[in-house]
Design brief:
By secondary structure, the chain is of the alpha/beta class. It folds into 2 domains: 115 residues, Response regulator (Rossmann fold, 3-Layer(aba) Sandwich); 117 residues, Arc Repressor Mutant, subunit A (Orthogonal Bundle). It contains 9 helices and 12 strands. Strands 2-1-3-4-5 form a 5-stranded parallel β-sheet, with helices on both faces. It has a 4-stranded antiparallel β-sheet with strand order 6-7-8-9, covered by helices on one side. Strands 10-12-11 form a 3-stranded antiparallel β-sheet. β7 and β8 form a beta hairpin. α6 packs across α8.
Length: 246
């Protein structure tokens, strides 16, 4: 899961980034409203943690602009302003939750889980994402399927999570590059193809019927194999096994 953290207190920003990264989240952090708007407008984040009182432009202004730009990522406003009127204003502007400083880190984690617990295809579990016949634990970097488990690299895990949050939907190549490598990366597009290949092998190794399908000229889509595709895969596996015995 990719998180944007916009917090101008450098010590708090550093501490939250370290703690969230330690829990398996991928975090991009910034320190003012202009940066928050720039990063948020890329529409690549699963959650945005937004300080209300930021330099350059307030977090509430950033939030209002993102919603006008049809960025629908869940936003948690983090602020020292905790009156009822402040909370109502933030929620009316489009925030999904409102967390008052000081707060416990475990409460922040709970609120992140809460605002992201929306997809009907993903079973809400504290430590794993489950779709069809696989389970993915970001904390352990562990992919589990019918035939066993496999440890993924962080890059492979980030790519898998991008697909799991939008199953059976075509995701553009540009979006995957932004989500997995970040907006400031100069990664070559060929790297995406390489990691899709790696991830396909991982899915096959754990016995999953899920496939990453190429949508030519657009990007990729994670979806269960059709009955015909599954039959072909089984036949190829059997043929390979007979060849080894021979």
């Amino acid at each position: 899961m990719r998180i944007l953290l916009a917090e101008d207190d450098k010590d708090l920003n550093k501490a939250l980034t370290w703690q969230l990264t330690g829990r398996g989240y991928s975090v991009d952090s910034c320190f003012d409203g202009d940066e928050a708007l720039y990063y948020g407008a890329q529409d690549i984040y699963d959650v945005i943690l937004l300080d209300r009182m930021l330099p350059c432009q307030a977090g509430t202004e950033v939030l209002a602009t993102l919603r006008r730009q049809s960025v629908h990522a869940p936003v948690i406003l983090i602020t020292a302003l905790g009156t009822l009127e402040d909370k109502i204003e933030g929620l009316d502007l489009g925030a999904d939750d409102y967390l008052v400083k000081p707060f416990a880190f475990e409460e922040l984690l709970a609120r992140i889980r809460c605002v992201t617990r929306r997809s009907a295809v993903l079973q809400a579990q504290p430590d794993a994402l489950v779709y069809e016949d696989i389970s993915w634990s970001a904390q352990d970097l562990c992919l589990t399927g019918p035939a066993g488990s496999n440890t993924l690299s962080r890059r492979e895990g980030g790519l898998l999570e991008s697909f799991l949050h939008l199953p059976e939907q075509t995701i553009a190549r540009e979006t995957l590059l932004l989500k997995v490598w970040g907006p400031d990366s100069d990664v070559e597009e060929g790297n995406l193809d390489n990691y899709v290949y790696f991830l396909r092998r991982r899915l096959k190794a754990v016995g999953s019927r899920l496939q990453i399908k190429t949508v030519r000229g657009v990007g990729y889509r994670l979806a269960p194999a059709s009955s015909g595709e599954q039959a072909n895969r089984s036949a190829q596996t059997s043929e390979t096994a007979r060849g080894r015995k021979a």
